[in-house]
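Handout for the seminar on molecular recognition.
Each group receives one record of this type.
Step one: identify the two inputs.
Step two: read the structure output and locate the region that could contact glycine.
Step three: write two sentences on what you found, then compare them with the reference statements printed after the record.
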Amino acid sequence: MINRRKFLHFSALAAPLLTAKKTFASNFDAATRPIVVSTWDSGMPVNAAAWEILSTKGTALDAVEAGAMHIENEINCCVGLGGYPDRDGIVTLDSCIMDHKANCGAVAGIERIKHPVSVARKVMEKTPHVILVGAGAQQFAVENGFTLESTDLSESAKKAYAEWLKKSEYKPVINIENKKQNGPFAPNFFDDGTLNHDTMGLVAMDITGNLSGAVTTSGMAFKLHGRVGDSPIIGAGLFVDNEAGAATSSGTGEEVIRICGTHLVVEFMRQGYSPELACKKAVERIVNRDKVKAKTLQVGFLALNKKGEYGAYAIQKGFEFSVKSEK
Ligand code: GLY
């Protein structure tokens, strides 16, 4: 029998607030469930990994973990152990995961662990806590069977760090999608060699209609040792509410934390805003705090509601997201 199912599998640019010439108020169509959406163009293979679970009636929780693990496996990627180090040359990873019952777990500043998202899941499932940090997170990971990996930087990270050390400027960059990148997982550079975007966040709805999400990142490149961004903070880098929807973010984490960004997006969806408008209103909250500073920042939000509608919005142009569902 001919398989007539059509699959929706693409990446799209989020509407930008600062450079938009018109209002992007339209919402993407609702897709049939299951569905997975993830940040950036590099979310395409991440979604494919999640889809293997969703399309066989697996849970959204398993799917988002599988998606995050997929990109953590990429040694020359901008998240995971192949990511860029902090200013002391140490790769520290942040991750979180959240399910449809508001169970959640996170690790921050964890070193030498290949799959921080899976450690985050263990924190969620095996402890009464939500976040473990630094040495404690690593100790917990080892106690739970995770292997300590080498401290060596990936080739791309080594090169970028050596370049950065020449000036050692502590300057977060605006992260945008750069089509000049070499393949879906390659670190994304501007023409002058500085790092472009970072975080992988994904949210999914499974066949039963339950939502989950996960985020994984090496955080801001060349950050202060110990700096934690939005990614492992529930309500900042990720929030899931099984009645209203789920949201994730990418960009300058400090700005997302200041407004509890993804919690805000989900609350706007609860009030009836479409995912795209909910993201837009959260972006406006950041921009309205400091319009001058906003010109130097990129933050993007990506959201999925209970109807399977999704949408995204960013401060600047260049924030892409990826979608996979069966239409
Ligand atoms: N959004 C990633 C970070 O700020 O670390």
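Reference statements: The radius of gyration is 18 Å. The domain at 4-325 is CATH 3.60.20.30 (Glutamine Phosphoribosylpyrophosphate, subunit 1, domain 1).
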